[in-house]
Specification:
Elements: E1 2-7, E2 12-19, E3 22-30, H1 42-64, E4 73-79, H2 83-100, E5 103-108, H3 109-115, E6 132-137, E7 142-147, E8 155-159, H4 165-175, H5 182-190, H6 215-226, H7 231-268, E9 272-276, H8 283-296, E10 299-301, H9 313-325
Bound molecules: 5'-O-[(R)-(carboxyoxy)(hydroxy)phosphoryl]adenosine (KG4) and zinc ion (ZN).
Amino acid sequence: MTTLGIETSCDDTCAAVMTGGVLQSSVTSAQAEHAEFGGVVPEVASRAHQRLIAPVVAEALDRAGAGFADLDAVAVTRGPGLSGALLVGLSYAKALALGLSAELIGVNHLEGHLASVFLEEMAEEETPQPPLLCLIASGGHTRLLLVDEADAPPQLLGRTRDDAAGEAFDKTAQLLGLSYPGGPEIGRLADEGDPAFHDFPRSRPGGSDYDFSFSGLKTAVLYHLRDVGDEEERAAYLDRHRADLCAAVQEAIVEVLADVLFEAADDVGASDLALVGGVAANRRLRAIVRERAETAGRRLFIPEMEYCTDNAAMICAAAHRRLRHDPPSSKEAPLALDVDPGLELA
Ligand code: KG4
Ligand code: ZN
């Protein structure tokens, strides 16, 4: 079975090809258009997806050594995400599935991130096993999920009450004069800074043990910079201490993520842990979580960097896992499939 995966939920135009559960190619075209706006502009994203979708799919097929006629299924993200952006991917996938008489499979973006830990080729017994505790940390989501049973919908243990972890990186990066997306920029600069330079808040909202809150961090950075003095003094301070501030902000974010993950792992007795989503590409977070997992004797699964941020390989992986247990009943493309910008997991 050869599947073409398509992902256009935000600002990355992505396509991938998978045959029999083995990834053949994965192409991601990050849209540079948004940098000047300091964040993703939905209309700009839709137009860029329209321009990029055909060449990105062509390149994914080319790299896989496949043609349209080889495709048995087209798997596409149908939500959550930006409605206009999702519509470009879904419309393209529908037309393709209809034209090729291929199966059309709508995939939840979060299910895709979750499936990214299954992309690495490994023996069945080495794959993540339930009870599996998974932290999705991206630009749009921060959720702690428990997969109790293989292929059953995951249970939501915790989520952010305000900003997502990636959003916290992006928004503080903007305050520090860095460009969008800020996560990778902060990660790079933090390597040269001192994480103990300033103690930014590690907020844990009351009422739930596993919820997150990152909006206070952004405010703390804003106040910290305001207290430095006038604009000129602030600019000089930032020039001198930008790397230190990046390291301190990064430490505050990754520490909370790791704390909640390991507290929950102890509470629910999860032997396997997974860290996915764009923020999982953060080197400091990967290192801290690896170290704690080793100490705690828990198996840890983190996708390779390129499969942490949005990609279509994970959409193929999610579709593949679903089809193993729920084979398609008809060869007709379900053209009634629609996007759902607020799609939930279960
Ligand atoms: O998963 P993703 O590509 O898109 C969403 O589903 O949101 O995640 C993008 C987010 C952005 O907020 C970006 O700043 C963050 O992931 N990110 C990082 C790093 N690479 C990407 N954050 C921290 N450190 C990184 N190295
Ligand atoms: Zn994502």
